[in-house]
Amino acid sequence: RFIEHVSNRFAVALAEPDPDLVRAVDAANAELDALKTRLADVRDAHAVAMDELARARQQKDEATAQLRAAERQLKALAASETQDKRRNERARDVVRVTQQTVLSDR
To answer: Where does the record place Basic and acidic residues bias (predicted)?
Structure first.
């Protein structure tokens, strides 16, 4: 009878969990769910940030390419300007020599 009594008490104890333990487990589960939600939010924010970073890098690469093209155009323009100056100097020299020749022939 004693064994039956102890066995019944043990069965009752197992059937009726400690309310403090139940609250603690529920609180831990709620905290775990909140952490899972937060982790999902952080992962989403990270994905968005990585997409923005990729776009920014692409824009930087495009801007760099445009800058290089503008630099090449500027160098070509400077070279053309130098050639124009030389041509103008030669033309002035020809005019000067021609004027001197004409004046000396008079």
So the answer is: 82-95
